[in-house]
Amino acid sequence: MADSSANTQDWEGRYHHIDQILDTPGPRTDEAFMAGDGVKNFLRNQAKILVIGAGGLGCEILANLALTGFKDIHVIDMDTIDISNLNRQFLFRPKDVGQPKATVAAEFIMKRVPGVKVTPYFGKIQDKDDDYYLQFNLIICGLDSVEARRWINATLVNMVDPENPESLKPLIDGGTEGFKGQARVILPTITSCYECSLDMLNKPTAFPICTIANTPRLPEHCIEWASVLEWPRVHGDKKMDTDDPEHIGWLYNTAAKRAKEFNIEGVTWSLTQGVVKNIIPAIASTNAIIAASCCNEAFKIATSSAAYLNNYFMLIGTEGVYSYTFEHEKRKDCPVCGGEALDLSVKPDTTVEQLIEILTENQIIQIKKPSLSAGTKHLYLQAPPQLEEATRPNLEKKLSEFVPENGEITVTSTTLPMSLSLRIAYA
Amino acid sequence: MKEDSKDIESATVSVSVEGQPDNKTRRYDRQLRLWAASGQSALENSRILVISGSATSTSILKNLVLPGIGHFTILDHTKVTPEDAGNNFFLEGPSSIGKSRAEEAVRLLLELNESVDGRADQRDIAEVLENDPSYITSFTLVIAHNLHPTLLGRLSNLLWSDSLNPSLIVVNSAGFLAEFTIQFHEHAIIESHTETAPSLRIDKPFPALYDYATNLDFTKMDPTDHGHVPYVIVLVQLLDKWKKEHGGNPPKTYDEKKAFKASILAMKHKIDEENFDEAEAQAYRCWSETTVPSQIAKLFDEPKLASLTPDSPHFFHLLVALKKFAAQPPHVLPLSSSLPDMKANTESYIHLQKLYKKRAEEEKAEFKTLLQESVPDELVDTFVKNAHGLRLLKGKKWSDFDANPSVLAEKLPINPREASAHLALAALRAVIVKHQGKPTTETLTEEALALLPSGTELSDDFSNAVGELVRAPTADLPNTSAFLGGLVAQEAIKMITKQYEPINGCCVIDLIDSWTVIGLTGGIATGKSTVSSLLQSKYNIPVVDADLLAREVVEPGTPALRRIVKTFGSEVLLTDGSGALDRKKLGSIIFNDEKKRKQLNAIVHPAVRWGMFWGVVKCWLRGERICVLDVPLLIESKLWRYVWGVLLVYLPQETQLQRLMSRDKSSEQDAMSRINSQLPLQQKLDYADYVIQNDGTLEELEAKLSRSVERIRRDAGWTWPSWVPPIGLLSALWVLAYRNLWFQVPVKQPKMF
Which GO terms describe its molecular function (chain A) (predicted)? Predict the structure, then answer.
């Protein structure tokens, strides 16, 4: 054993497999690689890594990291365990249903892999500040939410201080859907970031409200009618809980009744649940592939034992195994890491309110509740309430009253730590 | 996903008629949305044998136990070593050391799912192969990880000896490199979950659809209804009208297609009638004839169909019936009952849906009368519903993959990375057989060369692969094993459920550069040169090759090259003093810069056009009947206007990228932008008269090409000699436009999930 100090749990031969890599450079290994004790000591005694999400990907990531030799692992997850997790989240058992994922996963790993410390946090990533994120060498995300990814991405990009190289935290992000998945490496401010590739997201299926209300064709339209229109009408302010079987049951029955009325077939319990919870099919095998890819990159970055992914790996397993590895390019006008203003062309009579709608729907912007200002003038602010009220009359005014041709607008969001500069052209 | 979620419900409805599903359905909900109850039931009836309890083996099993296979056995006679205890999640650290590896792994795997049955078998595989082979063949599927090559050969022989024996997945890995192969005789898939949608038969409407659509009077409609007529109806009516005015023909030429589209938009009363926009976008359905998809038509040639017995698998009896069905006019597959969503009001959409459903039922009944053996109704339903996505994979014996040294040698220059990695792993196995001790670069290279015809040269890619194997010859890395665990389990699930499409061949994995590639099976058509040489050699059709011309016109000393150097600077010349153009360099400059690309085109295109003109004149003078212009960017360069017809040969994007990259050794990014710089598929379809999708083997390409040439010869007739050059000459050509039809990139939308 090279480093005896902290590793009382390490038995002779424990790292036989990994050490074949760490003791010798390969043909494609960077010159900076410190084969032997140097790199082993860093990996096993110094590296501190954060895993965001303890779900399908998170469980796999934690197990891989622990076996690879990372010994100081932190994990954040705000969810509790549901029975539908058990087909893939292999650190959980039926008895754990209802318990916090982060805590149960951490305990399992520590029990199974001796000498590894996993520190769980049962809560939101937004609860933590820069100081918290600054303590890690690397961050791996196994999330199912676009919003959370955008938040951590923007936070890590903003955290980069050019004076302090330690402030740059590599972010490795994975995601899966059915037999498909992707893994990517983001070096904040250096490579393309999550926000740079926002236009690659599938457009969420949004049904026009008039279709739902008047001319439904699909079972989905009936379910949307039940959840978006009927629930608030019947239940008032009572919040809908998509995990409550009684609520789903009510939605199912209401949707089924409407479907019958319109001769539409196919409203089922499963579809109802799928639509209202926006369920994405998920299986253990795909999660295993993507989590392994993420951890493999984490290992290569932490040890320099081999070149790491530059920067996007995509896998489609429905027809054979098709993978595609490419460099996603940085966008100069990316609102998070780009620095240059984004050009937006609007009609001359566009109102402030219409601009907000455009920003919400635009594939590369997708800001849910934007606040707008031009120089020192506030066009519209979402919060605080007093300022919202004060700026509300501007919504109906024409944009051209505030912003000249080629003038810039700053867009900020309450949910994302970023600010986007827009250069407006009237056409 | 919509389609899938419907499937699962209709299939699991027996589990929960009303209200909340039971615990099992809830537990498996996220996977039932993929493979439905039928797939689940196949998993639950499967029995899987895994040879060795290595980290990779247990990773594979974990991903099979979780979704609920019926039974698994780990066959492993070894005891847990300290090394095993360090890298296998399904061992309990030091406390497992010295115990049976099979027993420990089975115990911990079983904790994952109480409905799975598992067994540890501590016999030696060598002994079982010798004394108890029927035990091995009693499983559904056998998976072997890093099994000693001699034993692997015997296992492969045993399982291959009878086509009813289980399939075998062979997995090999060392360090960052790995590969796996599935050995099977034949694998029939009904539910391939293909992303290709079945035809709506707009060009061949069934009577009820035709009557409904043609009797609809748009002039008497109220304004709201007018904007809600489904596009299917709009197109059927307009196409009928068009055909009546054009001697029964659909829009054929580009101008006709344009005129047809204009007539759709002319029907709009108000700007916001989106149903007409949708109709315009879907107009190509009017001129792409509904036929039996070539992939399905190929299945009809299956020799087995001629000699079926009542005991033959249902799949083949169903296939015979399908063949008979398609032999009748209008020569199509049975109609699919599912109608995609489209702009419409409730009434018109539901009405249309009912028309399709009723017709689909009728055609299914017709299909059933053609069935000669009784097949369960449920299976007939599934078969008819998925007829457009049927697959029949023909596999190979594991040891046959590398049996032909020259095939392997041919792959090396075409797919250098994966062929080299595969070769290196094969060499590693050979070294192990010979007990040569720790492999070295020399021993591995020697073994690799022994697998190849003498004189084959190995590239840097081979050194890269071999270097990694020398570095970590016995490493079963946690991340590699987890990655393989996922991939192999995915394939196992596809094999067991007979849903989705498993790999047919060998999948090579490199986790340094992070890629997986399938290949090394049959002769993959190399594309352009293949098509061109086939046309010349097999059909004696002269080819004027624009790519070749494009090279000739910029050779040292040509006026075009002088202008290129003037525009882009002398750095676009090779540094070897030849004065020749550095095409790769120029390529990377122009493909990322639209302005520069235009500048280059302005120099090269006129020169190429002149060269082509002379090429054609020469053919004409020789009295050729047909001549082919092989033009990479036919549509973009507007040359299509001067030709008699356009034949498009295109590759699905992924195949194309792979080929482009391996041919030019360019980076993915370069390749992607090169594809992006060309017109997207949908736009180009409008220009095409004949289409060939070059996604299969060389044999498939040849078959498709032969059919097209036959049709073109028929259609083209003897018009050519009557034309007078120069203008008429160009109009009397048909053109092979290779490579100019790409899918919109990326064809499979990369998603972030």
Answer: ubiquitin activating enzyme activity
CA distance A106 to A116: 10
Backbone angles phi, psi at A419, to 5 degrees: -135, 135
d(CA B208, CA B222): 23
Interface of A with B in 214-273 (CB under 8 A): 214-218, 220, 245, 248-249, 252, 262-264, 266, 268-271, 273
CA–CA separation, B323 and B318 (whole Å): 9
Distance CA B197, CA B215 (A): 27
Mean pLDDT of chain B: 82
pTM: 0.82
Q: Is A152 on the interface with B (CB under 8 A)?
A: no
Per-residue DSSP letters for B209-241? HHHHHHT--GGGS-HHHHTTS-HHHHHHHHHHH
| Per-residue pLDDT at A49 exceeds 60 | yes
Average pLDDT score over chain A: 91
Q: How far apart (Å, rounded) are the C-alpha atoms in residues A90 and B346?
A: 45
For testing contact with chain A, the best of B3, B7, B29 (most A CBs within 10 A)? B29
Per-residue HEC secondary structure of A3-26 comes to CCCCCCCCCCCCCHHHHHHHCCCC
| A247 contacts A241 by C-beta, under 8 angstroms | yes
Is A337 marked active-site? no
Cβ separation of A319 and B81 shorter than 8 Å?
A: no
Q: Which pLDDT band holds residue B752 (cuts at 50, 70, 90)?
A: very low
- Which of residues 2 through 21 in chain B touch A, CB cutoff 8 A? 2, 4-6, 8-9, 12-13, 16, 19-21
Cα(B697)–Cα(B707) distance, rounded to whole angstroms? Answer: 16
Return the number of CB contacts < 8 Å for A and B. 331
Is the predicted ipTM greater than 0.90, yes or no? yes
Q: Is A200 left (phi over 0), alpha (psi -120 to 50) or beta?
A: alpha
C-alpha B350/C-alpha B352 separation (Å) is 5
Q: Would the CA dihedral through B681, B201, B252, B535 be positive or negative?
A: positive
- Cβ contacts of B50 within 8 Å, gap of 6 or more: B57, B60, B61, B72, B73, B74, B75, B142, B143, B144, B145
A146-195: per-residue pLDDT in tens?
A: 899 999 999 999 999 988 989 999 999 999 999 999 999 999 999 999 99
Assign B677 a pLDDT band (cuts: 50, 70, 90).
very low
- In 3-state terms chain B splits into helix, strand, coil percentages (rounded to 5) of 55, 10, 35
Cα B204 to the chain's mean position, in Å? 28
For A84, which of B26, B194, B480 is closest by C-beta distance?
B26
The verdict on B522 touching A (C-beta cutoff 8 Å) is no
Q: What is the pLDDT of residues B565-609, one digit of tens each?
A: 888 888 888 877 777 888 777 777 776 677 887 788 788 777 777
pLDDT digits (tens, 9 = 90+) for B462-501: 999 999 999 999 999 999 999 999 999 999 999 999 999 9
> According to the 3-state scheme, what is the secondary structure of B584-622?
HHHHHHHCCCHHHHHHHHHHHHHHHHHHHHHHHHHHHHC
> Is it the case that residue A264 has pLDDT exceeding 70?
yes
Q: What is the pLDDT of residue B493?
A: 98
Query: What pLDDT does residue B333 have?
Result: 96
Question: Terminal CA-to-CA distance of chain A, rounded, Å?
Answer: 70
d(CA B30, CA A412): 36
Among B515, B723, B525, B751, smallest CA distance to B626 is for B723
**Angle at the Cα of A282 from the Cα atoms of A322 and B27, rounded to 5 degrees:** 150
Residues 47-86, chain A, touching B (beta carbon < 8 A): 60, 63-64, 67-68, 83-84, 86
Q: Is the dihedral of CA A293, A298, A301, A305 positive or negative?
A: negative
Conformation bin of residue B381: beta by default, left when phi > 0, alpha when psi is -120 to 50: alpha
